[in-house]
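Side project, low priority. Logging it here so it doesn't get lost.
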Amino acid sequence: MAMRGGTALWGHFGIEWDILEATDSEMSDLKDWIAFYKLNRDFLHSSDIVRCETPDETIWLHGVVAKDKSRALFQMVTRGRSAISPRGRLRFSGLNDSRTYTIRPVIVGNEPSGLVPPLWFGELSQADKDGRRYFDGITTTGSILQNSGVQTPRLHTDQTLLFEIVEK
């Protein structure tokens, strides 16, 4: 479900699925993804689109950055099995080098399959009313996030993970 929701998030969030066949768990996750989309819809459709280079061709990293660079939301997608492990660092484009940001992974619904969080993730919160859970993350500069990056988490193939970046 994380892959379906994460993919639909960047468009009009069309479900394109016969939900009559969905399990109770899938319906619960779908509800959480819809709530997350509604909460972020205006931001997603009014921000600048960013595509980032990654250290491994089996990973895609893209997102949106607010026009004033105060907030960003990125998605990492694992498209295949990597020949290297760990996969290197994720570098997030479009931020302001001199500003300080908090970056934290966001879990909508159930965790993506095979998630092995690196230490920088910190602790995972309890679900809020919209079904989201956040890792503590870290606070650092835009320069570090863009140039040095953060360690890539491990995920199974065909999985997705969101990263929220907010100016501190």
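Brief comment: The chain is about 20% helix and 30% strand.
Revisit when time allows.
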